[in-house]
Write a structure and sequence with these properties.
By secondary structure, the protein is mostly beta strands. The protein has no helices and 11 strands. Strands 2, 4, 5, 6, 9, 10 and 11 form a 7-stranded mixed beta sheet that branches.
Length: 128
């Protein structure tokens, strides 16, 4: 059974950090591009970051560049999203997703339709 499970969300103050994890089971994460998306109440799900399977190239949404870092540990079949300097506009449910035959770089804007496997999401709340 193909499954992605996110963890690491929580309640933090502005300026704090969180590291989200996305553990895969039932398939080899190494073969897939990994995307991190977020959805705030009343808003559409948006792509935050993406990492390719082939060469580790990445994409970041402009508002998170320099603050968020996506990575993958293929030996652990896990992907990560390190989030630093969290801002009041970052709270949302964060989802990881796996997509086949995708190349992530600054010319690609992650589209939910390109990702076939999704986790259940983890809540990130930023509040003082």
């Amino acid at each position: 059974q193909v499954q992605l499970v996110e963890s690491g969300g929580g309640l933090v103050q502005p300026g704090d950090s969180l590291k989200l994890s996305c553990a895969a089971s039932g398939f080899v994460l190494d073969y897939y591009a990994i995307g991190w998306f977020r959805q705030a109440p009343g808003k559409e799900r948006e792509g935050v970051s993406c990492i390719s399977s082939s060469d580790g190239s990445t994409y970041y949404k402009d508002s998170v560049k320099g603050r968020f870092t996506i990575s993958r540990d293929n030996a652990r079949n896990t992907a990560y999203l390190q989030m630093n300097s969290l801002k009041p506009e970052d709270p949302a449910v964060y989802y990881c997703a796996a997509g086949d035959s995708l190349y992530c770089d600054e010319t690609y804007s992650p589209d939910t339709r390109d990702f076939g496997s999704w986790g259940q999401g983890t809540q990130v709340t930023v509040s003082s």
